[in-house]
Design brief:
The complex is a heterotetramer of chains A (about 170), B (about 110), C (about 375) and D (about 90). With about 110 residues, chain B is mainly beta. Chain B is built from 1 helix and 8 strands; from the N terminus they run ββαββββββ. The longest helix of chain B has 7 residues. Chain C folds into 2 domains: about 230 residues, FAD/NAD(P)-binding domain (3-Layer(bba) Sandwich); about 130 residues, FAD/NAD(P)-binding domain. With about 375 residues, chain C is of the alpha/beta class. In chain C, the strands form 5 sheets. In chain C, strands 1, 2, 3, 4, 5, 6 and 19 form a 7-stranded mixed sheet that branches. Chain C has a 5-stranded parallel sheet with strand order 8-15-9-10-11. Classes of the chains: A alpha+beta (about 170), B mainly beta (about 110), C alpha/beta (about 375), D mainly alpha (about 90).
């Protein structure tokens, strides 16, 4: 098979859309929610345990792909820093008329500051847009994984998945 | 280079600052860290030259198994620097080939 | 000669878990490690682990290491650090190197948890300073906080290669590329995705052709490979790097098990020669148990469960656990182990592990 | 891998030397080690052992499952003789 996560490290559109953790375009426009980009049968289920609303189901065996129920998700984002694969993101299509807010886990230094304009990158690490930093969360419970929320053009909400690393001081 | 700050591990907590004499030059180290770590942090790459081909070798396994990082330390040859803790004033030399014993005191042969 | 009831060799995840279970059951346990710090490779695993809550998923390896150490101390395990086991002799006697002298230690049961060592890859220039094991780089950056280089080429896209590439970025180095000679990425896709998002290309069907430099690596030459893993001429590329990390697999570190006379079997999926063992992790020799990567290359999560299994079995053998209780506890651990060996990444290991036990029955 | 490539880093033995030795009829790792010194250096084959096993299997058309490592002997880590000779027993300690 050409393309796809096993050859490129990037989940393909087909892989993502076939995954039960990936909300439909229809659901996405209704409210903020998480997007689970977990496409391989790894034995792992912390996302299921931490969700206070039962919006994520893995079940048995724990290699099953997480099933996401958008209607139950209140976008609290607790699963984002916990996922050992950093495969969960937050997407808010309702953020503004022309912008969406995207949240992603980030484990590099230096961290950006709220209000900074950083470069949004896609799953291949390519810069696709400027992105204004809306929030940088790093409470103790996240165990050193920061969650950064940026505003991006709406049509890039399902493309931007991180930011270009900032140069070390 | 030292990694002072780290996104996961936080700010480094170094031990007591000490000095190693490496090929006659002082370099800064922290007490108890492996000699090899201090050398790598100081940008030192060649730890010994091989016996037959006189080729440079440096840290390869960093676990005390491969013996590529051996140097002459306080006169003792073939010291695996990746698992030997640094102590203040240690005299460390890039080992040439099999090296040469320099100070028999460390072998316990010197009579008091 | 010193004596103990259970001697555990190697204080990594498997050895620590074994020592904790056995000591909790009431046995006298001596845990021996050649390093200055216990924990094996756990303290350099700064990423969050996979698995379920029972496997401490979502917790970083370094924290699991701290937890296990505390548990071992609380359980009354005697931990002997800076102590090399240089030999395993008749009558369960271990030869120890402790600083300036040697000692003997005899144990009723010996649990070997000696782990694994990194495989090498020979190519022109592989002896230059700056070429090192991925584990070596990981030790330097995460334990000793010394950066071995600024521009790194990672060879191998299994989990070790991908994880260490990511951790090199976290430490402040640039990873110029990850090359993998196979047409597919061997490690978890999510690890590959993290590296890709950080801007690092993963070049499958590529290999390192040579390393060049005077007194250390100054550049690497990589090339595409054909179906037989041979470089295709004309596809060479020069990469400006000062460090080349090798992540081309691990082999069980089994010298002591060989020396003891344990029977072995060859299982490529598990890293080569592994000592055969039964459902309780006991080898072909009564009273000698094996656990962790020594019994086949897996991961820290499985190593901890296998360690627990060996620790429980050893305590049971010595009478510290009633047979029913022992069986019940062991069954729980086996179940936890089984859940880590399913799915496309685990099935092969489950089959291979079954072969080991089968080989033991036939031995 | 080219023939002039070093395989044993400690004793600086090339693939060519190992292949040449195998032509004399060597079939086991122990024979190759004694004949060529590959794996006889300071690290005792810790790094090159697996590479030599691969070459031996290929050159003798044996599956890898037929090639066992060299006999494992103490000490399994480099230990100064002065330390090995300084054996402390209970009698010394009491």
């Amino acid at each position: 098979m050409k393309g796809g996560i096993r050859t490129t490290g990037i989940p393909s559109k087909e892989e993502l859309e076939a995954s039960p953790g990936y909300p439909s375009a229809k659901a996405l426009v209704t409210k903020p929610m998480v997007v689970i980009e977990c496409v391989q049968d790894i034995p792992c289920n912390p996302c299921e345990a931490i969700c206070p609303n039962g919006a994520i189901f893995v079940g048995h065996p724990i290699t099953q792909l997480p099933v996401f129920y958008p209607e139950r998700c209140d976008a609290c984002g607790r699963c984002i820093p916990l996922c050992p694969g950093q495969a969960i993101f937050g997407v808010d299509m309702t953020y503004a008329s022309d912008k969406a807010a995207v949240s992603f886990p980030y484990e590099f230094l230096p961290l950006p500051n709220k209000g900074d304009v950083v470069q949004g990158v896609n799953r291949a690490g390519e810069v696709v847009c400027d992105a204004k930093v809306l929030r940088v969360q790093r409470p103790k419970s996240f165990d050193h994984t920061a969650v950064i929320t940026v505003a991006v053009p709406k049509d890039l909400a399902m493309e931007v998945r991180s930011m270009r690393r900032l140069p070390r001081a | 280079m030292r990694i002072e700050d780290h996104p996961i591990l936080g700010k480094a907590e170094w031990g007591r600052k000490i000095t190693l004499i490496v090929d006659g030059e002082p370099i800064e180290a922290f007490e108890g860290e492996p000699i090899a770590a201090a050398l790598i942090a100081a940008g030192h790459r060649v730890f010994h030259y091989t016996t037959k081909r006189n080729e440079p070798r440096g840290v390869f396994c960093a676990l005390g198994r491969c013996t590529d990082c051996v140097m002459t330390v306080d006169g003792q040859i073939n010291v695996r620097t990746c698992v030997t803790p640094a102590r203040d004033g240690m005299v460390v030399k890039t080992q040439i080939g099999l090296g040469q014993w320099e100070d028999l005191q460390v072998c316990g042969e010197k009579e008091e | 000669m010193g004596r103990t009831e259970i001697a555990v060799v190697g204080a990594g995840p498997a050895g620590l878990a074994a020592a904790i279970e056995a000591a909790r059951a009431g046995a006298q346990v001596t845990l021996i490690d050649e390093n200055e710090r216990p924990g094996g490779q756990l303290f350099k695993q700064i990423h969050k682990f996979f698995g379920s809550e029972a496997h401490r998923a979502g917790t970083r390896g370094v924290q699991i290491g701290r937890d296990l150490l505390k548990e071992a101390q609380d359980a009354g395990v005697e931990i002997r650090l800076n102590t090399v086991v240089y030999g395993l002799f008749a009558h369960h006697c271990l030869g120890l190197v402790c600083g300036d002298h040697t000692e003997d230690l005899q144990a009723e049961i010996i649990i070997l948890a000696t782990g694994a060592s990194e495989n090498a890859l020979a190519f022109p220039g592989w002896t230059l300073p700056g070429v090192m094991g991925a584990g070596a780089a990981q030790t330097l950056i995460n334990i000793h906080r010394a950066l071995p280089g600024y521009r790194v080429l990672m060879v191998g896209a299994g989990n070790v290669g991908l994880i260490v590439a990511y951790q090199l970025l976290q430490a402040g180095a640039e990873v110029v590329a990850v090359v993998e000679s196979l047409p597919c990425i061997g490690g978890y896709g999510v690890h590959a995705s993290k590296v890709r998002r950080a801007g690092v290309p993963i070049l499958t069907a590529h290999t390192i052709v040579r390393a060049e430099g005077e007194n250390g690596v100054e550049r690497a030459v990589i090339a595409q490979v054909d179906e037989n893993c041979q470089p295709i001429s004309g596809t060479e590329q020069n990469l400006d790097v000062d460090t080349i990390c090798l992540a081309v697999g691990l082999s069980p570190l089994a010298e002591l098990a060989w020396m003891a006379g344990c029977q072995f079997t060859y299982i490529p999926t598990l890293g080569g020669w592994v000592p055969v063992h039964d459902q309780d992790m006991q080898t072909s020799l009564t009273g000698i148990y094996v656990t962790g990567d020594l019994t086949g290359i897996e991961e820290a999560s499985t190593a901890m469960e296998e360690g627990r299994l060996a620790g429980l079995a050893a305590a049971e053998t010595l009478g510290y656990l009633a047979p029913e209780e022992g069986e019940r506890k062991k069954a729980q651990v086996r179940e936890l182990l089984a859940t880590l060996r399913i799915g496309s990444f685990g099935e092969g290991r489950a089959v291979a592990k079954g072969q080991i036990v089968k080989a033991r029955c036939e031995a | 891998m080219k023939d002039d490539e070093l395989i044993c880093r400690c004793e600086e033995i090339t693939q060519a030397e190992i292949k040449e030795a195998i032509k004399f009829g060597l079939k086991t790792m122990t024979e190759v080690k004694r004949f060529t010194r590959a794996g006889m250096g300071l690290c005792q084959g810790m790094t090159c052992g697996r590479l030599v096993m691969g070459i031996l299997a290929r050159e003798t058309n044996q599956p890898l499952s037929e090639v066992k490592p060299c006999t494992s002997r103490p000490p399994v880590r480099p230990v100064p003789v002065s330390v090995l000779a300084n054996r402390v027993t209970d009698d010394d300690q009491n």
